[in-house]
Amino acid sequence: MRVLYGVQATGNGHISRARAVGKYLQAEGIAVDFLFSGRPADQLFDMQQFGDYQLKAGLTFVTEQGQINYLKTALRAKPLELWRDIRQLDCSPYDLVLTDFEPVTAWAARLQKKRSVAFGHQYAFLHQIPQADSTPLSRSIFKFFAPGQQQIGLHWHHFNQPILPPIVDLEPAENTAEPDKVLVYLPFEDQNKVLQWLHPLTQYQFYLYGPGLSKSQSGHIQCSGPCVEQFKHDLRQSYAVISNAGFELVSEALQLQKRILVKALQGQMEQQSNALALNQLQLGQSTKILNTDVIKTWLTSPSHSSKVQYANVAQALAKWIRAGACPTELSQMNLWHDRSAQT
């Protein structure tokens, strides 16, 4: 069986899911070719696992200081290049096209009538889940940006909808948290401002990851640019996580039962909805602003770490795909074995 797997590379969450799913697809004996879009080649890192992957421009949002710049997003869009890439992508060698909200593979499969499965957090928004500032435009984006013949949504809770738990790229290991260690990942914020917020809080050890940062240490703040293995190591050892409201990192933090504080990317309906859901499920805390006082108040407040444990959805999906990807069989998978822990 040969599969074309399209991955939206705008954020690291989709790539993290691809690391998990890709390993299990290959373990099932499935040949996988990857295509990434939405990020320049020089901004990708630790991509060895994906072999000789394709890279396309796709579509992405431009962010500045914690919010989307819609004007720059429109000016940098390349619709003609996107259409050309869709038309030129040959899906004929593949038995199945997978897409994690990646438009080139999704639309190429649709035009060529190739069987396709779309999965990811965005497809959960096609169901009745907590949504903040939902508009006809946002609903259309979720429906048409990267459609598939079968569409599988992922979320932290089932909300009595036909969606699956998160796909978490974490190998089994002991969760040994250090009581003063805090992981900070705020890629959409000005990193100099983040450093200013953290600097007065000398009673904590902050491990700050972000674009443009070089590996260095200034007192109680350890800085690092994007990487995979060291990031996951520090995530395991931290007792708390401060991040934007992206789905994948929060999912990993929930699985590891960390304290979580998120600041949603302004103007990004998905992240704002994630923050809303996190509050409603009482699995973490969200804030509309970040500064030293907000961070200090949260760190010194009573601990409310998550109490969830998710099934191995990546492995289940890989086995389901290898068995023929029958919709009925997917609906019968009992992946919400932790329902009692979901409040």
From TrEMBL:
Keywords: Transferase. SUPFAM superfamilies: UDP-Glycosyltransferase/glycogen phosphorylase. GO terms for molecular function: transferase activity. InterPro entries: MJ1255-like. Pfam families: Glyco_trans_1_3. It comes from the Bacteria. NCBIfam families: MJ1255. This is Glycosyltransferase. It comes from Rheinheimera tangshanensis.
